[in-house]
Structure formats: structure tokens, C-alpha cells
Write a structure and sequence with these properties.
Small_GTPase; 233 residues; Rossmann fold; GTPase activity; nucleotide-binding
């Protein structure tokens, strides 16, 4: 399942325009863990490029601006567990920002993207993070992603500065290049590992709750005193 199952839907304001297409083998969706992933960040930081690179192994130099959101899906196997990443690529334009909370509903992971060649986009990440924390479930995992790392001669945001910000805010961090593909698969593998940690923690909690619960008595092995039946007079 190296390429997985790929599904792309172009969606404007949450409405499927009917241009859905499946690429790849049929797949039993009941065997996977579905994970809703939402990308956020300023326009032109490469959110769509990241999603397309991961889902379709392609890079297109220029895209039309995302209207509302686009939807991509790809499956991945991490440590024997299969995840189906349902990636909602949101628009970065200010006029669509009010729609982001709608897409964050039920999200498991948020990818906060900035452009390593743009300090403005990095500064804006703090504002996007504030929106994320206010609008997303408390359990959501957030990854800070510096895109366009291939443009090293134009770098404006150092790795150290971004790492420090991520550490202060308790975010996962990685740099990527949607153009070359560098670290894109690594990013989603990292996200899968984050979900595995949550699943393992839940299993441990369930196991702990079970072991400390009241013992179960097998009534088949319990002898009850015989009941006397009263005779009618």
C-alpha cells in the first residue's frame, strides 16, 4: 500500500461540486483509522502544494486560489496501523478566514503552515494558532510546518527561531519542500506516530480502568441457599 488510496474533491464553502475522482485500488474503509487533518496559514505559503504533493505525488508551479477548502485523501501505514488522512486544505485569504472554524470541527490534526522565505507568514502563524486553539477540539494535535525549505538562499525564518516558537507553544515542528517532496512523507508519518501515541495512551487507560474495576463474579459457580416453599393450607 505504498501509494494508498487517493481521493480528491474540490469543495467550495463545504459544498462538493461533483468533480470527485478516485485514483488507485478499491479499499475497505472499515479497516483503517480515519483522521481529519486541516491545513491553515496565510495564502501562498504552499498549503495546497503540500496536500497535492502528499496525496498525488505531484507539484504544480502555480494554482488558482483555494476557494473555501479543497479535500484530499491518502492512506498510510505506520507501525502496522493504517491511517486514512482526510486532508482539508483551507483558503488563506482573509475573506475566508471565518470559515476555518467550520472545517476544524472534529479535526484530529491541524497543520499550521508558513513560508520560510516570508517572516510575515511566520509572524501570522501566532494569530492562526490563536484561532486554532479557540476553534478546534481540545484534543487536536498541531504541527508547525515551514514550507519552501528548498529556497535556502531566500530564507527569512531560521530553523532555530521556528523551533523555539514550536517548543514554547508545545507544537510538533518540521520543515518541508512541496516542490522537491523533501520531508513531506516524513511529516505525515510523524502525524501518524502522534495518533499512535494517543491510541496507545487510550489503550493503557482502558486497561487501567478494567484492572481497577470491581471483580466480576461468575454466578454459575455460586451456590445459593435453597428456598423453602410454603405449603398452602
Amino acid at each position: 500500500m505504498e501509494n494508498g488510496t487517493i481521493l480528491k474533491r474540490d469543495i467550495a464553502s463545504g459544498i462538493d461540486n461533483g468533480n470527485s475522482q478516485f485514483v488507485g485500488p478499491s479499499y475497505d474503509y472499515h479497516e483503517v483509522m480515519k483522521v481529519k487533518v486541516v491545513t491553515v496559514g496565510d495564502m501562498s505559503v504552499g498549503k495546497t502544494s503540500l496536500a497535492v504533493r502528499y496525496a498525488k505525488h505531484e507539484f504544480i508551479e502555480s494554482y488558482n486560489e483555494t476557494i473555501g477548502a479543497s479535500f484530499y485523501v491518502r492512506s498510510i501505514e505506520v507501525s502496522g496501523k493504517t491511517f486514512l488522512f482526510q486532508i482539508w486544505d483551507t483558503a488563506g485569504q482573509e475573506r475566508f478566514r471565518s470559515l476555518v472554524p467550520m472545517y476544524l470541527r472534529d479535526a484530529k490534526i491541524a497543520i499550521l503552515v508558513y513560508d520560510v522565505t516570508s517572516m510575515d507568514s511566520f509572524d501570522a502563524a501566532a494569530s492562526w494558532l490563536k484561532d486554532l486553539l479557540a476553534s478546534s477540539p481540545s484534543s487536536v494535535k498541531i504541527a508547525l510546518v515551514g514550507n519552501k525549505m528548498d529556497l535556502s538562499d531566500q530564507r527569512a525564518v531560521s530553523v532555530e527561531v521556528a523551533k523555539s516558537f514550536a517548543s514554547q507553544k508545545n507544537l510538533a515542528f518540521i520543515e518541508t519542500s512541496a516542490k522537491t517532496g523533501e520531508n513531506v512523507d516524513t511529516l505525515f508519518t510523524m502525524l501518524g506516530e502522534m495518533m499512535l501515541e494517543d491510541a496507545d495512551a487510550l489503550d493503557r487507560q482502558i486497561s487501567s480502568d478494567t484492572s481497577t474495576s470491581s471483580p466480576v463474579v461468575d454466578v454459575r459457580n455460586v451456590k445459593f441457599p435453597s428456598q423453602r416453599r410454603c405449603c398452602r393450607s
